[in-house]
Design brief:
This protein is an alpha+beta fold. It is 44% helix and 14% strand. A hairpin with a 4-residue loop joins strand 2 and strand 3.
Length: 250
């Protein structure tokens, strides 16, 4: 008999290997560092275990130490107003008083500041008025002093001109200090040294002096027509008239 040849059949490998669901991998920094993905297995019916708690049957065991009756559930106790929602914070609202004292204090401070400001403004105005009056008085006094000084200078220059223009010892003594005592002395002096009248050209200097603890003396430097310069000591007497000290001159 001829040997029966065994037929060889080729079967694809894909038919034997169970097809797996495609893996959708989400790329991230951690997955790139980890390397190969991890396949998660889906739990089957065999490895599903129950974690249910065993609760005793109510008819066999009492869950509560005291079971309220139906009457207790139906009857609702009276609600305490202190625990009602609309009464929350009611006590605090009633007992919180408005701090009127602070408002009064702030008002007093504002009024005090306003009064102080008005007082300072009034004082500044008064000081300004006093300063104006004082300045005006000083200016008036200076003006009077300047006028008085100008008048005195004119009198001194007029007296010196008349003194040097005198033609006799009697006339010269009128413009000298102590004329009664100076008149005979001047007559005796000019009997030896003739009296020559002269005209003054200008006053070179005029300044006040303090002699014998008195401040009513002046020193005048006069240039005559012949270009001679004479220094005069002049006293202002009680009547305000200048008098030349003849003795100092000669």
């Amino acid at each position: 008999m001829a040997r029966e040849e065994k037929r060889v059949e080729l079967r694809p490998v894909d038919d034997l290997v169970e097809r797996q669901a495609p893996i959708i991998r989400l790329e991230s920094k951690e997955t790139l560092e980890r390397g190969q993905p991890m396949r998660l297995s889906v739990p089957t019916e065999e490895n599903k275990t129950s974690h249910r708690l065993d609760v005793p049957i109510p008819k066999d065991f009492e869950i509560r130490t005291h079971q309220p009756g139906i009457d207790a559930l139906i009857e609702s106790p009276a609600a305490n107003p202190e625990f009602l929602e609309y009464d929350w914070g009611k006590k605090a609202a009633h007992h919180r008083s408005i701090p009127w004292g602070w408002f009064a204090l702030i008002g007093l401070l504002l009024v005090g500041s306003a009064v102080w400001s008005l007082t300072q403004v009034q004082e500044a105005n008064n000081q300004g008025d006093e300063l104006v009056v004082s300045t005006k008085s000083v200016l008036e006094n200076e003006a009077r002093e300047n006028l008085k000084a100008s008048s005195l200078i004119e009198k001194i220059e007029a007296t010196s001109r008349k003194f040097f223009a005198a033609t006799s010892p009697e006339i010269l003594a009128r413009y000298a200090r102590h004329p009664e005592r100076i008149k005979p002395l001047a007559s005796h002096h000019y009997s030896t040294y003739p009296l020559v009248p002269s005209t003054t050209l200008r006053t070179q200097s005029l300044q006040p002096l303090t002699l014998d603890n008195r401040a009513n003396f002046w020193m005048q430097s006069v240039q005559l027509q012949n270009h001679e310069i004479h220094h005069l000591i002049i006293e202002i007497d009680e009547s305000g008239e200048p008098k030349i000290d003849w003795e100092t001159l000669v």
